[in-house]
Design goal:
Layout (H helix, E strand, L loop, with lengths): L1 H22 L2 E8 L10 H12 L13 E8 L2 E5 L1 E3 L3 H8 L11 E6 L2 H14 L3 E7 L1 H16 L5 E3 L12 H11 L5 H6 L1 E7 L14 H5 L11 E7 L1 H14 L9 E5 L2 E7 L24
Parallel strand pairs: 6-11
Antiparallel strand pairs: 1-2, 1-6, 2-3, 4-5, 5-7, 8-9, 10-11
Length: 307
């Protein structure tokens, strides 16, 4: 009797182990590409100079990502999806500043975007991992969380939100989204967005209204004016808040944690490497889907994007 119970217990443990491996075989990974050089957000002058430097950089052989980039990977067994939010035409980010003289209005402008396709960007990711030009963070998630995030991508495209790049960087509200806002929205949806991420990954500045040009203000801002702007808005000055996740900050944060945790076996992150790229892995089995998926009830099909 005791032997039968012993064998039964072993069988149950074996079945549980196998089934657990199957249930928890899903993951979401954020791959963070830094820009060629760090973008300096100290003031409008340094932002202009550092961004211009990144646009003319010849540092990378693969497609230039002057503002950095974040790709999102969803994996389950043999199923694999890699995507990221990107502008269709990179010139759409330069033309408003250089020709239309919108100044820092470009920071809030919605331009034509798309979700990158897996097969078109896998080679770039492979190149960057080989060169160590990317850092990543992987979340092992439940099957229900995986299916929810997969549905999110499908619904995001069905609503037409993938065609609106930049803007207010509110992907779940259909008001435009950059690559980092899109990537972080996945963490929001499964309650995996830790408070420290908001503290260490974000840029927060108040953009003076006098530097925001475009149709909404009817004013033109020359490059010379931006060049000689050495401060963000003062406390009581008319301004518009800008809050966004910076790919460089996330890339740097991952590498900093990785270097600090090398000798710490009790940390919440497991250290990983893909070729020469450093990464973190976190167990997120209890990160449950958050409702609602989108923060608006109706499809936002009437949004106008700039071409």
């Amino acid at each position: 009797m005791n032997n039968n119970f012993k064998y039964f217990s072993l069988a149950v443990c074996l079945i549980f182990t196998i089934s657990s491996q199957y249930v928890w075989a899903q993951s979401i990974t954020l791959y963070c590409f830094p820009p060629p050089h760090k973008i300096n957000w100290k003031n409008p002058h340094t932002l202009l100079i550092s961004t211009a430097r990144d646009y003319i950089s010849k540092k990378h052989k693969e497609p230039l990502r002057p503002l950095g980039h974040i790709m999102v990977e969803l994996k389950k067994d043999s199923s694999y999806l890699l995507t990221g939010m990107a502008p269709i035409h990179r010139a759409d980010l330069k033309k408003p500043v250089l020709k239309e003289k919108q100044g820092l209005g470009i920071l809030f402008r919605v331009i034509e975007g798309h979700l990158e396709e897996t097969e078109k960007i896998r080679s770039e990711l492979a190149y960057r991992t080989q060169k160590g030009k990317v850092a990543f963070i992987t979340y092992n998630i439940s099957d229900s969380a995986y299916e929810y995030l997969k549905l999110y991508i499908q619904s995001f495209k069905a609503r037409g939100y993938d065609r609106m790049y930049n803007g207010k960087n509110e992907p779940r509200m259909g008001e435009g989204s950059g690559c980092s806002a899109f990537a972080v929205s996945f963490l929001e949806l499964i309650n995996a967005l830790l408070p420290e991420y908001n503290q260490d990954w974000k840029i927060k500045v108040d953009v003076p209204d006098k530097l925001i040009g475009g149709e909404s203000t009817g004013i033109k801002i020359s490059l010379l004016r931006l060049f000689f702007s050495f401060r963000w808005a003062k406390k009581n000055e008319s301004s518009r808040p800008l809050v966004l996740y910076d790919p460089y900050l996330i890339y740097n944060w991952i590498n900093t944690i990785w270097n600090k945790e090398q000798n710490n076996s009790d940390g919440i992150y497991k250290l990983k490497k893909i070729d020469n790229a450093k990464g973190l892995e976190i167990q997120c089995y209890n990160c449950m889907p958050q409702l609602p998926m989108f923060k608006v009830d109706t499809l936002n099909c009437g949004i106008q994007v700039s071409h």
